[in-house]
Design brief:
The protein has ten helices and twelve strands. By secondary structure, it is an alpha+beta fold. Strand 9 (406-414) and strand 10 form a beta hairpin. Helix 1 packs antiparallel against helix 4 (176-227), helix 4 packs parallel to helix 5 and helix 7 (353-362) runs parallel beside helix 8 (383-400).
């Protein structure tokens, strides 16, 4: 995958690499342009040098040719290579010559290899091409051979006398000096470029760390927010008023508000727990004190009249009834605590086990039970909790309907949720009572404890579900419980 390695490092590394790459690109581009310009400048200097050398010889060459003074021609060429006051220039001259229009040598720096009066040796193709180009020269011209350290260029100046072409001066200079100058220039430029790249890398690293330091701190803060560890988040120092500075100030503000919100939520949760505990304690005390007061009166009376069979027969059922009521309250609380702390998954088909229990609860009453379990057997449910919810709601529905009434139970899957619907066509719940039906110990029944719906609400809440009630007097009540699926089989 192209540039995949850039996706894993942090922003500080990417930013530093980007700045380094930009500086390197700009530096190398400028360096390449400077090397190219230097090369052209050095080449132009070499060409001018070759033409000047050839022209310096051609100034006197016409007179020497007309006088057949070949020795003076040779000395004028030799003077080009002489160092010191008498020399023309300290330049690497490969060779120099004066030839007539037919190509015969009039003077040459290597006379032993190129004898006077003989045609110029043109053994290779390049020398032949240069001679053909020289024949066409009528003004100072540069002729070049191949580039490279072994290459060369020639300054060719024609020799005229009264507009008659007497010959050509050819001065050949090596490219070696040009390459050495270009190499030295390139080394200097490469050194400066590497220095700029190193400086850009250090600057990019420093800038990236300065710019990404608040972002790194914010990232760690966000992770702490996700874990709920608000106490570990410290305000991030704001050093600049740029976009990152504004983002940092916003983050600090959000973190402070969330910390304050969490503190308030914890305080509210503690207050709610205390209120709930107080309400339950008061309810338990009230519900237990009522039968206890009657029982204590009965016991006190029996103590005063222990041998009165009539009083014993009258008060023993009252004592039994009071004890059973206290037992029912305690059992309901124990059942709620036991079920809330227990989880046992089972197939949705296990809900059908309740059908016979509800039928026995109806007994001989003329009540119709409509049962519709549409859940697939592969769906898993929290058996104990869900059965307790359904059982409590169906018992309430049975108690709410009269003879010839109907109680219905329907369950089905809706996406990632299981929906339970328990409804009846009984007397309904008034709007005044509807907001209190899930409060502990609230009941409209003569012998009710007021814990059934409270247990249902607590079970639904601990399973992260939702319970809704829709009721109207004389038309019935409908409870809808929505619970998240535990697991759906894919087989």
């Amino acid at each position: 995958m192209r540039f995949a390695w850039l996706r894993s490092p942090g922003l500080s590394v990417k930013f530093a690499l980007t700045i380094t790459a930009v500086v390197a690109g700009v530096a190398f581009t400028i360096g390449a342009v400077m090397v190219t310009l230097d090369w052209k400048r050095f080449q132009l200097e070499l060409e001018n040098s070759a033409l000047l050398l050839a022209h310096s010889v051609s100034v006197t060459a016409a007179d020497y040719i007309l006088q057949n003074d070949y020795w003076s021609l040779f000395k004028s060429l030799k003077k080009l290579t002489t160092k010191g006051p008498g020399g023309v220039q300290e330049t690497l001259i490969v060779t120099a010559m004066i030839i007539d229009p037919e190509g015969n040598i009039l003077a040459h720096l290597q006379p032993s290899e190129n004898p006077l009066g003989l045609p110029l040796s043109r053994g290779d193709t390049k020398e032949n091409e240069l001679w053909l180009s020289t024949q066409a020269v009528r003004a100072p011209t540069i002729l070049s051979s191949r580039f490279g350290k072994e290459g060369f260029l020639e300054g060719v100046v024609p020799i005229f006398s009264d507009q008659i072409l007497l010959g050509f001066v050819r001065v050949r200079l090596s490219y070696r000096e040009l390459f050495l100058k270009a190499q030295r220039s390139a080394m200097v430029i490469v050194g400066l470029t590497l220095g700029l790249v190193l400086l850009g890398s250090l600057l990019g690293t420093a800038l990236s760390r300065r710019m990404t330091k608040p972002l790194t701190a914010m990232t760690q803060g966000i992770e702490a927010l996700g874990r709920g560890e608000l106490a570990t988040i410290s305000p991030i120092a704001v050093s600049d008023n740029d976009e990152i500075g504004l983002l940092t100030m916003t983050f600090n503000k959000i973190a402070a508000e969330m910390a304050e919100k969490k503190t308030l939520e914890e305080q509210v949760a503690v207050s709610e727990k205390l209120v709930a505990l107080g309400r339950i304690s008061a309810g338990v005390a009230h519900e237990v004190n009522n039968p206890l007061a009657g029982m204590m009166n009965c016991i006190d009376t029996l103590k005063k009249h222990p041998n009165d069979p009539e009083l014993v027969a009258r008060y023993l059922p009252l004592l039994d009834k009071g004890l059973n009521r206290i037992k029912g309250i305690v059992q309901s609380l124990l059942i709620e605590l036991h079920v809330e702390d227990t989880q046992a998954t089972d197939s949705a088909a296990s809900l059908d086990e309740l059908r016979e229990l509800i039928a026995s609860e109806i007994g001989g009453r003329d009540i119709q039970l409509a049962w519709d379990n549409q859940l697939d057997e592969a769906i898993l449910i929290d058996k104990i909790r869900v059965q307790q919810i359904i059982l409590n709601l169906l018992k309430n529905a049975i108690q709410a309907v009269t003879d010839d009434g109907t109680v219905s139970f329907t369950t089905y899957q809706d996406g990632d949720y299981v929906t339970l619907i328990i409804s009846d066509d009984g007397e309904g719940i008034s709007a005044d009572y509807r907001k209190q039906i899930f409060d502990p110990f609230f009941t409209t029944k003569i012998n009710g404890t007021g814990l059934g719906l409270w247990i249902v609400y607590r079970l639904v809440e601990c399973m992260h579900g939702i319970i809704e009630v829709d009721s109207e007097l004389a038309k019935g009540t409908r409870f809808v419980v929505t619970l998240p699926c535990i697991e759906a089989s894919t087989s």
